[in-house]
Amino acid sequence: MRKFGQIVSYLLPVIVGVVLMGFMAGCESKKAVAEKNKVLERRAWEEVWNQGNLAAVDDIFATNYIGHNPGMPPVSGTEEYKQFFTIYSTAFPDMHYAIEEMIAEGDKVATRWTMTGTHQGELMGIPPTGMRITVTGISMSRFADGKLAEGWNSYDILGMMQQLGVIPPPGEGGE
């Protein structure tokens, strides 16, 4: 019995150590995945939206990607995503997105951003105004299998329309 107690006293710390190392490795791997997702998210903003590199879409986005944007039907797949980008890059050829903040947890990344650009092409039936605008927004992205799988965007559409002169600012509505 004494020998069994000695064995247990030697093995118990080893077992506890192995379990703790496994737990820590699992936590580290979740953190590593979240960091990889942030890198992909940043690439989407920098390479696609700021540089206009549509070839990067196929590398970053899942082929069955779904994008949710206010007041618009969902964007389904990488080809529709490229068309969506083209609409905005035509309207604002000098657009630039600045990432203000990025937070990742699990398979999700939240990004707070500011876009600046000059309205030089038609946007949703609005003829070019030549107006320089600044729009802020927040995007939430979900990742699966190392690709951007789904995105939800929320941005100041009212402010954008006011800056473009489509909607009068508060107090100028002809009251």
Overview of the structural elements:
There is one protein chain. By secondary structure, this protein is an alpha+beta fold. The chain has one domain: Roll (Nuclear Transport Factor 2, Chain: A), CATH 3.10.450. It is built from 4 helices and 6 strands; from the N terminus they run ααββαββββα. Strands 2-1-6-5-4-3 form a 6-stranded mixed sheet. A hairpin with a 2-residue loop joins β3 (96-105) and β4. The longest helix is centred in the N-terminal third of the chain and has 49 residues, at 2-50. The model has no long low-confidence stretch (mean pLDDT 89).
Q: What's the N-to-C terminus distance?
A: 93 Å
Q: Pick out the low-confidence regions.
A: none
Main sheet overview: 6 strands, mixed
Elements, N to C (H/E) = HHEEHEEEEH
Number of domains: 1
CATH architecture: Roll
> For the record, what CATH class applies?
Alpha Beta
Descriptive tags:
six-stranded mixed beta sheet; alpha+beta; 4 helices; 6 strands; 175 residues; elongated; Nuclear Transport Factor 2, Chain: A
Brief account:
The chain has four helices and six strands, in the order ααββαββββα.
Question: Would you spell out the secondary-structure blueprint of this structure?
Answer:
Elements: H1 2-50, H2 55-60, E1 61-68, E2 75-76, H3 77-91, E3 96-105, E4 108-118, E5 132-144, E6 147-155, H4 157-163
Parallel strand pairs: 1-6
Antiparallel strand pairs: 1-2, 3-4, 4-5, 5-6
